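2024-03-11 09:14:02 DEBUG pipeline.ingest accepted 1 chain
2024-03-11 09:14:02 DEBUG pipeline.ingest length=1528
2024-03-11 09:14:03 DEBUG pipeline.predict start
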Amino acid sequence: MYSLSERQRSNSLSSTTALSHQLSLSALPDELARRLDLVDQVRVSELVEGLQLVQAGFFTEVRHDAQGDDEDRSTQSQGIVSKWRQKERLKTTAVALVLCLNIGVDPPDVIKISPCARLECWVDPLSMQPPKALDTIGKNLQAQYERWQPRAKYKMHLDPTMDDVKKLAISSRRAAKNERVLFHYNGHGVPRPTVNGEIWVFNKSYTQYIPMSIYDLQAWLGAPCIFVFDCSAAGLIVNSFKAFAEQKPQESENGGPPRNGGVPYTGPPFPPSQHDGLSDCILLAACGANELLPQSPHVPADVFTACLTTPIKVALRWFCSRSLMRQEGLTKELIDRIPGKQTDRKTPLGELNWIFTAITDTIAWNMLPRSLFQRLFRQDLLVASLFRNFLLAERIMRASACSPVSYPRLPPTHHHPMWQAWDMAAEMCLLQLPDLLENEDLEFQPSPFFSEQLTAFELWLEHGSSDKKPPEQLPIVLQVLLSQVHRLRALVLLGRFLDMGRWAVDLALSVGIFPYVLKLLQTTALDLRQTLVFIWTKILALDRSCQVDLVKDSGQQYFIQYLDSSDSTSSTDSRAQAAFVLAVICDGHPRGQSLAAGAGLLGVCLTHLRHSLASLTAGEAGPLLLIKWLCLCLGKLCQDMPEVTAMALRERVPEQLAGLLTASHPELRAAAVFTLGTLVQVVDSEGGGLPGVSEQDRLAAERAIACQLLPVTYDGSPLVRAELAAALARFAAGHAVLFKDAVHEQQRHAALILRGGSAGSGPEAASGSAPGNTGPRSAPSAGGPSSMPTLERTSSSLDEVSKPAGNGDAGGHVSSPGVQATAAGAFSPLLSVSIGDSTDTLHSPLDSGSYASADAARVGGGLYKHLLQAACTLATDPAPKVARIGKAALRVADVELVPVCAAVGQLAPANSASVPSRMHSMVSTSSFLGLAAMSRASSQALPPGTPPSGPSPHPNISKWRPMSWRASSRSLASSASIPSSPSSSSLPALPPDALMRKPFVLRMVNGHMGRAPSIDVLPSSSGRTPAMSPGNSMHSSSSGPNAAGPSHHEEHLAGSSSFLGLRQSSPTNLPASPVYQDSCQHFSWPLLEPQASLWRAEGKNQGWLGGSIPPDPTKMASRIREKQSSMQRCAQLGPGARLKDNVHTMDSEAGSTLAVLLHPFRPLLTSVDGLGAVRVHNYRHSTVINRFHVLGEAGGERGKAVRQAASVTFLHQLNEVQDGLLLAGTADGAVRVWRNYALKGEQRLATAWQAVPVAQVHSYSQLYPQQAVFALDEPSGRLYAAGGAAASTVHTWDMSQERCTRQIYVSGTDDKSSSRTEVTVQHLAVARQEPLMLAGCSNGCLQLYDLRQSQRAAASVQPHKTPMLDMVLEPGGLQNQLVTGTSSGELQFVDFRMVDSNGEMGVWKTVEAHTKGAMTAMAAHPYSPLLATATATQVVKLWSPRGEMQGVIRATAPFLAQRVGPVNCLAFHPYRLLLASGGGDSVIALYPIVSASSEHSTTTAASPNVNADSASPTLPSDTDSPRPNSAS
């Protein structure tokens, strides 16, 4: 079963094995049902226990891989390229029979014994006149061949001349055209072949033997051809044939004789290289070059031909001659009287032929290379039959010291053990023969051969794997599918085999499963349906080209009927598999789409979707896999099919799918986005739109879909956002004119901003509010009132979300964050979600009527501007996978992103009379870019107090000039003055580009809108503009920064909508759907337990399968015990705890450190510098074991210039009892989660999303946005974030659902006050033991929220008169306690229980922690009563939660081995008494903590051990040490 979430596995384990149990139906015997039970109950219980341990993990599933190298990883994980399908299938359409017997005259070089073999085609030549005997033999030979190929054209020459053979060969080739010709030569009446490559025929008077060269025969017959030579020394012919075939290419180059001997050919021309050469010729020779044919009277004279054409008769006769049964009255005459037909498998003769076919196929399958088996046994039915019988000829003739020869050469097969199975089956049949002949009413007892072979195959399934030898019974299983008696059991076992992986499916297809299972779709047996659906799921997951064969045989009917059936035994997983098969049938196959739509697939999918959504809305678990594949099937059915899309719109499919956009599972949301995107038409049909739908209605419906999709821009799942980017590409292609009008308008707006123009002249300048304002903003019309979008809503949730009413009650529904529809109808790109209860109520975030008209949706706040903005947001997504598809979506619109350099001073003055038309070719600053990718400061660090060199051409141009973090941090460290203005922030200064986007422009890649303006573009290492590539690089075009302006003609075209609406690229250039590709990949993995769990664990351990490595239950149990004992030791810390004198310092190899994090169970410390470089240290050995940039590939590598900087403000380790994930939040509001971060070079980005709305800058006069702040409540799986453009709103992210589920608006005053103050949230904290959240505002007020109740603040307090530096909630695990601090060194201790009647919390203690130097950091131990503070003057103090100082270490301490720099950050070890600090230099310090009362015991149990010979402590070893390859 497919588990969509690790959290649901334990609840759905019964469904996991539902398929395996249902395959063992009651029709099977109890013994069979027992053997087919796939799940060991003991192992199931162990699996359940293990999965329960995993439930607390986040971002561990396969889809959590946002690295962006999906193509490479999918190829690596696939590990196999199926080659089962032959490039071409050949048929033998012409047969030429040549018999040189000369009955009555023996050849001169043959001495016959007496008695000797005489039978030719089972006719004694001496029993009748020679002419009649010759004619009878010829007719019998033709009849024997017709048994294997009845539709071929047969031509025969008996005792021919050379001219007869030549005419026969040429006429056969003419009849066969490009197909294969069979040439059979019987030379029993002529001399042996010569060493020169000649065979013998007769002259016209039959007085001489005439030699005929094989070379000529090759030329006459051409290729492809199969030769059968039944004569003595036939191996000489094979040798000569190969020699001549190798000479032909040389002669052709030298102008040698043409093909077919120069005989004119009037048919279709032969391909020059397709069927020429030895590779297209097959030879079967009766014996070796130095051997004679057997002359034993027990075999026919043409025993080789008899084996090839009548194998059962020869095999039984030969067996009888060697068996003891001949003494019991079994004679050749009785063998010839075996009842039945070879085509009737219920008769003795038919069953023997069936078993013989299975055995010879099995021998060939196990002995031959796969490619040779495919060519000889699966390409041509006649060739396959001849080679099966050739294996028998080798066995029989080797017993007579004769070795048949073939080309291609086969390995010896006469000794294969399967021949013993044939002897046993033949003996059991022959034992019944006398009784059957005497009593015709006696029933024949079938052989147990197939049942026994199925049992052997079942035993292999119990112990086999891809590393072991493939099952030799696989060809037999395919033969069993022809029998109704064993068919169900064979299908069940075959399904289990296919479930072992792609390699198993490829093996089954190579052996020939495809035609068997294709034919079974014509059956109506109900007990086979579920198994057949499962088998076809596995086949199509490997090779989706089989859709053509399914459509050709009307196979879609079978799966539609199964999906629509009311059979209660059909599981939802099985129906999901049927939906997958139908989706593959429709994938890029117009005929398949048409036939499926004609069969009613649309109605079937909608019916099941309604029922499934009803159960999902009711709060049930719901068939998640079925819902997802119903959506994907709908999308593939409608994709690029106007007729089907029109039907879907009439059925109101968008309205039915809108609710899924807020589903709790990311894959359901992604599937809904995919289906909605496919309803957008890319290429108009010949009729000019959708059949039966007016163009106006079509555009209106598609704009309604756009309104539904825009809120998904800020979804928490990269899979959903990547699917949205693919959908936006379809909008860009289908709405080219309006989309490019939006590009043109953004270019004008960008030109005004970059030149310092008025913000009011652009479409984004609605009001003069700060970027953090979440209130509604109106956009000016473009062309009068008629241009304003008109919105008709049934719900006002999106309007209410922007109103600062109460304390932020924003509505009554839950939706994904994205855009906000203002009262004026414009779409403001805010992270707007409605707020409701905790249940996952499904609804449409925007009503279907919420779209603008065609005119109103043009420039000036219209819909297409926001579609363009969403595409640019996704093109700069923190997840490389999303960014790659977002850039591809922009490419569809013929635009690309190019970053703008900070040197904006080259622009014209702001008071310029007009904007040059060159600015029309560039677009947008950060005002419309979405997710934060920060650019590195291009200017060098300035000393403190040094003003920028040179005047600024614009009074606010400094706001575009990035700062150096190192300079700002040193300036802060050297400053002792405390800001007194309440409005000024006391947070550490950050680079401005860390809080918002570096400006970008959109450049037309095809030069439609002129050349780029004279604006500096960030050059690449080679001096060129970066070219587009997967990841974070940008597009490039031929237009450079210094290019001349456009001509007057180009300037005119730049403003023309008709020019902008040029024909778009073909749909083949659209980015592929990621959710469809990933979902299809799932079915190629094992689905049945316990094999599925074992396979996934192996795949994740080896790295070729995404997701986190499954945890070791033993290690997890050990860590849990260690965690509990450490928590108890920390909580029992006695009074008088102090910092030990021997401080351990490390060199971080960085200029400064912004954040540190200690691993809970391993001696690892993670640090992040001012540029966003992450380093993982082994503090026991003071080594760096891994380093990478928090932005991933965008941040550069070691030794290379880092183009983008990132200020990390939040670090946390998720899934700590497992291998752990590193969650990093940056100042711009992006959150990235890294997997394997402690393994050198193996880190991978698990997921990334924007937790707060991105910064908006509309003019130079606006302030920079507030840096993002985060708080994590891991037990509940919620991340709280605030900052960015909505700094007064706290966004609640559910990490299991990967979406924003709630927003809390934070007001500067309480509800009782009549006035309201717009504030920004600068601090966040969440209680671990109570559902409480604390928000620290920019005005110094603290708001306490009870998360169980409404959005209103439960209490508030303003402890300080100066801005707050930081706060610590529940220090040491003490409930209802809060400690706040300011840069001046003041600590306030607050108790939540001390609340007066006005809702004000009381401050019960104030401590002046530091009087000299500014306090820069504070932290509290989560379980031990410890609080630490630090200053920029290198002083670290330890406090109790009651405000009592426990210890202090100063920079002037004589025991410091290395001087500690200004402290920027502090972090306690979560379960040990250890404190880490990082500062403005490269030194990271570790401070051991001991209790004065029990220093010795505490040191031994919980703190680093002291080495008496060194000033630095020897830090403790860890039982859970890093992997060996992690060491530096």
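2024-03-11 09:14:41 DEBUG pipeline.report The chain has a mean pLDDT of 74.
2024-03-11 09:14:41 DEBUG pipeline.predict end
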